[in-house]
Amino acid sequence: MQKGKIGVSSDNLFPIIKKFLYSDHDIFLREIVSNAVDATQKLKTLAARGETAVSVENAKVRVAFDADKKTITVSDNGIGMTAEEVEKYINQIAFSGANEFLEKYKNDANAIIGHFGLGFYSSFMVSHKVEVVTKSYKEGAQAVRWECDGSPEYILEEAERAEVGTDIIMYVNEESEEFLNKARLDEILNKYCKFLPIPVVFGKKTDWKDGKEVETDEDNQINDPSPAWTKKPVDLKEEDYASFYRQLYPFGEEPLFNIHLNVDYPFNLTGILYFPKLKNTIEVQKNKIQLYCNQVFVTDSVEGIVPDFLTLLHGVIDSPDIPLNVSRSYLQSDSNVKKISSHVTKKVADRLQQLFKDSREDFEKKWDDLKIFIEYGMLTEEKFEDKAKDFFLFKNTEGKYFTSSEYETLIKDSQTDKDGNLIYLYASNEEEQYTFIQEAKNKGYDVIVMDDVLSTHLINKFEQNDQKKRFVRIDSDVVDNLIAKEDQSEKLSMEEREELSPVFQAVCPANNGVNYMIDFKAMGESGQPMVITRNEFMRRMKDMSKLQGGGGMNFYGDMPESLNLVVNTDHPLVKKVLAEKDAALSAELETTNAALATLKAEQESLEKAKEGKKDEEIPAADKEKLDDVSKKITELEADKRSKLDAFGKDSKLAKQLVDLALLANGLLKGADLDKFVRRSVELIN
């Protein structure tokens, strides 16, 4: 029997392994099983070359546990080790300078991984003692047993093992007894070892007999050694891709289509990515893209490893150039990972381009389920945006699809404003904005649908990319003002506007957290008497604030809703309200207006007399006179507004016109809606 110390003099090695080396303690089983798979593959390679007569026909890795003995055992019939190899690969785990390296990186343990291949030592994360029984494939080799209790001391002695291969026996410590559980081990194996290239067996298959579950004699193989992504695309059919998707996501909805990655230069990369159906929200799901290294699971948290928009895809990426035993922060800065990320982005864009070219009709049918992914890519990845311009589609309210260049050609003649800007009219909700859409169509305009969560951001990007393009939501103004062809002349005098505004302001809802701004437009006798519009800039800012959920945009998100109540000065009913106002208040308002005119003239004269003088040079009497005149003007204007408010509140017609506009926009609810119905019946009678 040989006793000795592991080839690192620092006693810090095992604490580092146990506490810092891996972020998840369940990773130990992945490491040990992966090593067993590697050893088995090496023996199969030697057998294929004729360098050994050892049979590899039934090569497999077995995982077992004994709850009473508190052990977990991983066994393989792979290449095995001689005593000299145990000494080399287990005891002398580091090359020259290891102590200096450990000292240098003692505060950054993740940097150690990948330099030493410390996978085997992860067994000490859960064990107070680890035993290795191994027999080399080499002819006449003596089996050996190695034992270590987590200190640098070890025992190495001869042992008995009938077959070639290795047993790793882990004596589980008290803190890790959760792993001495069939369901827990099954969960870990399914997570990390599901697609390892050598059969992995854990227990026996079970069957129901006499109302209970019983074990059969058949091995329970937990993995698929030849998953779809390891095969050539030419050898797979669509049903194979669909079957593999169900294997990955048993309860997932059928995907739209897939991309099979198969690259061998300048790096090795295989995988299959699926496009899931995405509606109007960015769906947050676990297990989107699973990252593998030689069929060994690395992570399904790929944010920061692949571009954000690719995390919306599902599927598998596998590359031996991805370091297996490293933290995510290391992965994110790894140059190979960055190259792979860039390449996958290109392949995705190329695949979409090809689908569009090969079958535009099919592409259009899938557009509504696909568009949010493409929009997200265009917003977050410049290289993808450049390629996506060729297959991004606008969909109009008639259900027709156009590329950017096609749509520009369609609307250029009719939707260019007086300043040469190309105006893209869009609707965010076809049902709610139906009236606005119809009015635009009657005007000869075309309207596109921009109705998902990313639309506001995408519109802003389009406008930034081309200063001569503007996107205007269909309900942001009356139809005549959506695309300014010429300057509009006002038909109401300023005085008439000032007197009519309080009448309608008085009957606007005052308890729903919305500010109503009264505006006047000549929209023709056949137009609506009143229209509610939403300011394009403010609405966009509020939409972006909702999506971002904080930050600098909160300023807009916290502001109350502001709507424009546009009064059609051409409409007979509006003219009737104006006439009724004149009939009821003409005499009083004439007197008030005359008095205001006199006072404002006096105020202007007094203000003019102050020009060019310092405050101390102005006589006190003039100051008092100006204050008195200003006060009287304020009082008269308040009195005038009070009379107009009172008239408005008493005017059933004014209230009915405002409520009709609110109703058309889904803003009339509860008691206000009930009152409107009752008033409507009264007015009809």
TrEMBL record:
Check the record and name the CDD domains matching this protein. HATPase_Hsp90-like
Query: Which Gene3D superfamilies has this protein been placed in?
Result: 3.30.230.80, 3.40.50.11260, Histidine kinase-like ATPase, C-terminal domain
User: Entry's Pfam families?
Assistant: HATPase_c_3, HSP90
Q: Which residues bind ATP?
A: 31, 35, 76, 81, 96-97, 166, 328
Q: Does the keyword Cytoplasm apply?
A: yes
Q: Can you provide one Gene Ontology molecular function annotated for this UniProt record?
A: ATP hydrolysis activity
InterPro entries assigned to the protein according to its UniProt record, in alphabetical order:
HATPase_C_sf (IPR036890), Heat_shock_protein_90_CS (IPR019805), Hsp90_fam (IPR001404), Hsp90_N (IPR020575), Ribosomal_Su5_D2-typ_SF (IPR020568)
Q: What start-end ranges are recorded for coiled-coil regions in this protein?
A: 589-616
Keyword Transmembrane helix on entry: no
Superkingdom, according to UniProt? Bacteria
The protein's UniProt keywords, in alphabetical order, are: ATP-binding, Chaperone, Coiled coil, Cytoplasm, Nucleotide-binding, Stress response
The record's annotation in NCBIfam families points to: PRK05218.1
Q: Which family does it belong to?
A: Belongs to the heat shock protein 90 family.
Protein name (record) = Chaperone protein HtpG
Provenance organism: Mangrovibacterium marinum
> Source taxonomy lineage?
Bacteria, Pseudomonadati, Bacteroidota, Bacteroidia, Marinilabiliales
